[in-house]
Amino acid sequence: MTDLRVLTDATAELPAPLAALDLAALDANADDLVRRAGGTPVRVASKSVRCRWVLERVLARPGFSGVMAFSLPEAIWLVRGGVSDVLMGYPTADRPALAELAADPALRDAITLMVDDAAQVAMLGPGTRVCLDIDASLRIGRLHLGVRRSPLRTPADAAALAQQAVDAGQRVVGVMFYEAQIAGLQDTSPAVRFVKRRSAAELAERRGAVVEAVEKVAGALEIVNSGGTGSLEVSSADRAVTEVTAGSGLYVPGLFDRYDSFRPRPSLYFALPVVRRPTRDIATLFGGGYHASGPAGKPRLPRLATPGLELLGTEGAGEVQTPVRGHGAQALQVGDRVWLRHAKAGELCERFATIHVVADGAVAESVPTYRGEGKTFG
């Protein structure tokens, strides 16, 4: 685990709040993702990274191939910056970006758009590379376990949309299955583990049937994408899968602390300065209201990395101040720093323009996030 004293000493002359990346932990996490994928190429999910320096470093390592982007303007920006293979993780309705894509053959060859609806297909021009997003949730009767993404579920659904895309002159090159109920669910109980096993078995059978149905319409597929940080072993074990996707496993945010499949090794932290001491066992930090997306609640709050501290239930993490209490607060003085982790991965980079990369006890580089490069993609 990261020695927070090393981060404190390395960044002591820098103003806080600040974000710091433990480079050794990042590299170790990257190696672990490749190991867990078992030889299946790993595509990097940019939404969980949001820093080109990190994307480029990871893509240069054996075992990684391509980026999964979350926005078409982002995908175009990445390709123009040198990334040669970008798969959109989500559909787009950005007409100016679609027009830019249609006008540039190099962009059309490098970017694969995600579709799951005939209305999306109708927005795309001939020659566009498309991938079908297939619902990977588990359904037991009327019970739906997983995220609400694609309306495509059966082989017939997928084949019908593939035919519409082919008829429109588009290149159907792949299918994607994101099993959020496996990849994004912590192993907190026997019931959760049972759901994961049952979901993996159901999906393995259905995925093969979907691939076969789409290939009858569109020919051999280049991409059968699946998985996430929490399900690399499960997804890569399916012979139909050609690649898996991961991103959060590079930074390992708070929501990934309780998985059976890997040991968490957080690499990205942020530091807040102490600005008040209202009581002996409470210290007030500047800023900190970096709540993660998703259902509101305690799991979406930042995690205290500095030991002996906890958030106040009545205030949580605030817009301009965050009080913390506990025996660790008694030794804190105004000007000291407290280290925290975001609940999710790339979202922290929307709060900071710079990440300070710490290696061998010093700041080796200070690199821009998307925000630091003046880019916000939603």
Structural features, described:
This protein has helices at 4-10, 23-37, 52-59, 72-80, 95-102, 105-110, 118-122, 155-167, 180-183, 190-218, 232-236, 248-251, and strands spanning 18-22, 42-45, 64-69, 86-88, 111-115, 129-134, 138-140, 143-145, 171-177, 223-226, 243-246, 268-279, 282-286, 303-304, 310-311, 321-325, 337-341, 354-359, 362-368. It is α/β, with parallel strands linked by helices and 378 residues long. The chain folds into two domains: 23-255, Alanine racemase (TIM Barrel, Alpha-Beta Barrel), CATH 3.20.20; 268-373, Beta Barrel (Lyase, Ornithine Decarboxylase, Chain A, domain 1), CATH 2.40.37.20. The strands form three sheets. Strands 1, 12, 13, 14, 15, 16, 17, 18 and 19 form a nine-stranded mixed sheet that branches. Strands 2-3-4-5-6-9-10-11 form an eight-stranded parallel barrel, surrounded by five helices. Strands 7-8 form a two-stranded antiparallel ribbon. The model has no long low-confidence stretch (mean pLDDT 92).
SSE layout:
Blueprint: H1 4-10, E1 18-22, H2 23-37, E2 42-45, H3 52-59, E3 64-69, H4 72-80, E4 86-88, H5 95-102, H6 105-110, E5 111-115, H7 118-122, E6 129-134, E7 138-140, E8 143-145, H8 155-167, E9 171-177, H9 180-183, H10 190-218, E10 223-226, H11 232-236, E11 243-246, H12 248-251, E12 268-279, E13 282-286, E14 303-304, E15 310-311, E16 321-325, E17 337-341, E18 354-359, E19 362-368
Parallel strand pairs: 1-18, 2-3, 2-11, 3-4, 4-5, 5-6, 6-9, 9-10, 10-11
Antiparallel strand pairs: 1-12, 7-8, 12-13, 12-17, 13-16, 14-17, 15-16, 18-19
Helix pairs in contact: 8-10
